[in-house]
Design goal:
The protein is α+β, with helices and mostly antiparallel strands. It has one domain (20-121): Beta Barrel (Lipocalin), CATH 2.40.128. It has helices at residues 2-16, 84-87, and strands at 29-37, 40-48, 52-57, 60-70, 73-78, 90-98, 101-108, 115-121. Strands 1-2-3-4-5-6-7-8 form an 8-stranded antiparallel barrel. The longest helix is centred in the first third of the chain and has 15 residues, at 2-16. The radius of gyration is 18 Å and the shape is globular.
Length: 123
């Protein structure tokens, strides 16, 4: 009975925890995102205002429109897609925020496979 009480207490405490989610701070600004691509760490810098995002990656510039669904979710659509893959919009969702970073998940609109990342606001 004692083990059951302890387990219930831990479960109820864990269910009360809400991660920080102050998304409005990350609607605009300059950000960095690092990830592994083909076994190598690469960095993308992007500048976002309320309706446009400009990405800088490997000396290339790419622009997308932003349509906000709510304070923490938006749809990115490439302005000048170069192939069929780039024509597909991305659903972006900010999951948590902490200081000048946020953790997000993204997927192609209509697809179930989601990936996660962390971006840092640098300006």
């Amino acid at each position: 009975m004692k083990k059951l009480s302890v387990a219930f207490l831990l479960l109820s405490l864990a269910s009360c925890f809400q991660p920080e989610r102050k998304c409005e701070k990350f609607r605009t600004g300059t950000f960095e995102f690092e990830t592994y691509l083909n076994g190598e760490m690469v960095k993308t810098t992007f500048v976002r205002n309320d309706s446009i995002e400009i990405d800088y990656f490997n000396n290339k510039v790419d622009s997308s429109t932003i349509r906000w669904i709510n304070d923490c979710e938006y749809i990115l659509k490439n302005i000048n897609p170069k192939n069929m893959t780039e024509e597909k919009p991305l659903h972006m969702k900010i999951l948590t925020t902490k200081g000048d970073t946020y953790t997000f998940e993204y997927s192609v609109v209509g697809k179930d496979k989601k990936k996660k990342g962390t971006a840092k606001k640098i300006d």
